[in-house]
Specification:
The chain is an alpha+beta fold. It has one domain. It contains three helices and three strands.
Length: about 80
């Protein structure tokens, strides 16, 4: 299960949008942000990982018309 499935898309966007510039991690239980070095608390979520998950989610391609995704030189062979 990825972060977006776990927290929900809107919650992930709120976490990223509300993060101070200096913060690296979000701690859900305490609903706070922190800039931690080598010490990670249980459940701390990397804001970089969360931003990457959101970018990947926004980039997901939904095929609505398959003919737009097949090369015109592709030959279809029926059996």
């Amino acid at each position: 299960m990825n972060l977006i499935e776990k927290l929900g898309l809107e919650k992930c966007k709120q976490i990223v949008d509300g993060a101070p510039a200096i913060a690296n991690f979000y701690i859900p239980g305490k609903a706070g942000y922190t800039r931690m070095g080598s010490v990670l608390l249980d459940g701390a979520i990397s804001l970089n990982d969360l931003r990457a998950a959101l970018a990947d989610h926004d980039r997901t391609d939904c095929v609505t018309d398959i003919k737009n995704h097949i090369s015109p030189t592709t030959k279809v062979i029926e059996r």
